[in-house]
Amino acid sequence: MTADDTIAAPVYSPVVVDMNELVFSPTVEAHSFVVKNTSESTIFFKVELTVVECCSVKPNKVILAPKQSQTINVTWVKHSTTGKPLQLLVGTIIVPESDEPGDMDSILSRHADAKEGFMARRRKLILKKPCETMLYSHIMKIRWNEPLKEDSSNDGTCTKENTSNEETVKEDAAEENTSTSTVTEKEVRKKKSPLPIFFQNVFKLGSKK
Questions:
Q1: More confident residue, 129 or 176
Q2: How would residue 2 be classed by pLDDT, with cut points 50, 70 and 90?
Q3: Is the peptide bond before 101 cis (omega within 30 degrees of 0)?
Q4: Are 90 and 161 part of one and the same domain?
Q5: Do residues 36 and 62 lie in contact, with contact meaning Cβ atoms separated by under 8 Å?
Q6: Do the Cβ atoms of 21 and 31 come closer than 8 Å?
Q7: Is residue 48 located within the same domain as residue 112?
Q8: In this predicted model, which residue has the larger pLDDT, 143 or 169?
Q9: CB distance 108 to 118 below 8 Å
Q10: Is 98 helix (H, G, I), strand (E, B) or coil?
Q11: Quick one: 48 and 133 in the same domain?
Q12: Which helix (H) or strand (E) holds 99?
């Protein structure tokens, strides 16, 4: 497909998506959004994820009748370890009424150019072909609300300070006990120690008389 085969997508799109962002969080597993067909033609659209292993989309392919709306459910698969999708793509294709009905894959296989344009959805291209098959795309962002990690630094600091305070108190008490025991031992020694030699001699002299 060359640049001559494509033109810029018009401002008007026959498909309206009621939101442009999905927010997942640990407490919310599923989200829904509505795709509306505002045209008088049948619309085939497909929803894709950048990492399909993380989220499941139901339904993935839908045929919208004129003036019809469809609710799409997106579920976050928690046990997936392949990564998190950044965006969700809603691609729509309008097929002329003369075309045979079929699902999205068969429509795209019959319109190889449309399929190539569908793969180039980021550039929002539509085809300029005699069959007037048109392609539109919508990009929905996906945001993740991560749980806040509990800050245990304060608890650790408090515990450490409390521990140091307790150790200081214990040391002070030990010193007090040591000084008390020292005084007590001195007093006991004073009581048990004999009289000085001078007084002993005086008493001896007195006893000789």
A1: 176
A2: very low
A3: no
A4: no
A5: no
A6: no
A7: yes
A8: 143
A9: yes
A10: coil
A11: yes
A12: none
The length of the chain is: 209
Contact call for residues 117 and 8 (beta carbons, < 8 A):
no
CA distance 160 to 127: 70
* Contacts with 80 (C-beta within 8 Å, 6 or more apart), sequence order: 53, 54
69-76 and 55-58 strand pairing:
antiparallel
Half-sphere exposure of 85 (CA within 13 A, CB side): 27
* pLDDT at residue number 38: 82
Same domain? 35 vs 73? yes
pLDDT of residue 32: 85
Other beta carbons within 10 Å of 163 = 10
Q: Which pLDDT band holds residue 142 (cuts at 50, 70, 90)?
A: confident
Residue 178: alpha-carbon gap to chain centroid: 58
Alpha helices, DSSP H only, in the chain? Answer: 104-110, 112-119, 153-192, 197-208
Asked if 10 and 39 count as a contact pair (C-beta separation under 8 A), the reply is no
pTM of this structure: 0.46
Domain count, the chain: 2
DSSP label at 125? Answer: E
Average model confidence (pLDDT) across the chain:
61
| Max Cα–Cα distance, the chain, nearest Å | 154
Which of 124, 144, 164 is the C-terminal boundary of a domain?
144
CB 46, CB 106: distance < 8 Å: no
Amino acid symbol at 37: N
CA atoms within 13 A on the CB side of 117: 30
